[in-house]
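@channel sequence for tomorrow's demo:
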Amino acid sequence: MGLSNDYLDRHRDREAGRSDKPIVAGAISQRAVGAGALVAGAACLPLSMLSGRSAALTHFGAIAAGLSYNRWFKFSALSPVPYAVAFGALPSFISLGSVAGSLAPAPITIAATLLGVGAHFINTLPDVDADEQTGVRGLPQRLGPIPSLVIGAGLLGASTAVVAVAAPALGAVGAVLVVGTGVCLAGVVALALTERTRWAWGASLVAAATTVGLAVSSGVVA
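structure tokens (generated this afternoon):
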């Protein structure tokens, strides 16, 4: 998804002066990035099938959602929808490809969906000015930075809460991870409010990682 996003956004990134983007910085040609996106997309077809037809179809749906965001939904108030679809499908891709071959438990699917949509809102914070300049008008951009921060942090916290409530046994490790996630989310809010939005995005990734760790350690994904 990252390759296709950088390729499709290459003109907007140049217009916004996004020197952090490899194409704009001249670190790689746009042709190489476009070719890489096509090769990666083509490789997904046979590689996904190794996990079985059901898992592959689920993966294809997630890929389609990601591509639809890169091409269309990032300009729409419906921009969270592809994130909800792609992240919500990820646990089932894994579980359908396992020996059990079943859909993921509902709590982990809900938690993954909340996590993905929450990440979408936080991810827009560092690029508010560039998005406004280049016409990217997803739901977070329409709502503004503060509402997006509140919604994003709230959804990430809700994701953790769903996992914690669904856990058969939280245990000491799980309790530590819940507290750790809370600390990370407090950091997300504090960093964003002090205009260190890229650090806030990094903190949100740590919060997401601790939530995944909570799901694994507490047996929610079993």
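heads up for whoever presents: The first helix runs from residue 2 to 8.
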